[in-house]
Amino acid sequence: MEVCFTMEMENDLDFEDYFPSMVERLGAEGFLMELCHGFHLLMDVEKGLITFESLKRNTLLLGLQEMRDDEIVCMLREGDLDGDGALSQMEFCVLMFRLSPGLLSGSDDGWDMLE
């Protein structure tokens, strides 16, 4: 059963949580590979991180071209665990899991869906 979650942002963007159905279709390893591909699409190639500049450059790709700079900064802060102002691949993956309540619902430890 797919759980859908819609998160509305200030500029009326919707986010639907398709991660649970992706895990079912791709399996755990395939899903993690897709997250890694997503990270590589968004990262600054020279720094190996998702930076403000790389995320801003990719807003069109994400369909978020109307995002304000302060909203982009907020997105980065949400996942920035080490305080460097950018997202490493690990930080990006952790953020994606945190933003997907469907992956964590119905499980005791939140990771059984990926086993």
From TrEMBL:
It holds the Pfam family EF-hand_8. Keywords: Calcium. One of its GO terms (molecular function) is calcium ion binding. Gene3D superfamilies: EF-hand. InterPro entries: EF-hand-dom_pair, EF_Hand_1_Ca_BS, EF_hand_dom, KIC/PBP1/KRP1. Residues 67-102 form the EF-hand domain. PANTHER family: CALCIUM-BINDING PROTEIN KIC, CALCIUM-BINDING PROTEIN PBP1-LIKE. This is EF-hand domain. It comes from Dillenia turbinata.
